[in-house]
Design brief:
mainly beta; about 110 residues; four-stranded antiparallel β-sheet
């Protein structure tokens, strides 16, 4: 079973930056794709960014140009660098891994104050 451990959330002012990390207990090369989702109360979880094992990357339109997803294969870790944060980025951010099954991290809170 794959476990995902997230870190890096917190409180930041609008315009600031945060970097989220997601470390997997599995060999990252065995995972088809890893992604970051986010969710606010009362709304559906939405995809923020995804990176595949082949290196393909996609972003939600709302974060293009501000967020960057990357991975460190040696550390089995995926990152989400978030710049120019806006109050509407406030959410719980979840790491996701697609292997034979789907796995989710425990979530990390990101709060952007105006």
């Amino acid at each position: 079973q794959v476990q995902l451990v997230e870190s890096g959330g917190g409180l930041v002012q609008a315009g600031g930056s945060l970097r989220l990390s997601c470390t997997t207990t599995a060999n990252i090369f065995s995972i088809n794709a890893m992604a970051w989702y986010r969710q606010v109360p009362g709304k559906q979880r939405e995809l923020v960014a995804v990176i595949t094992s082949g290196g393909s990357i996609n972003y939600a339109d709302s974060v293009k140009g501000r967020f960057t997803i990357s991975r460190d294969n040696a550390k089995n870790t995926v990152y989400l660098q978030m710049n120019m944060l806006k109050p509407e980025d406030t959410a719980v951010y979840y790491c996701y891994a697609d292997q034979i099954y789907s796995y989710w991290g425990q979530g990390t809170q990101v709060t952007v104050s105006s």
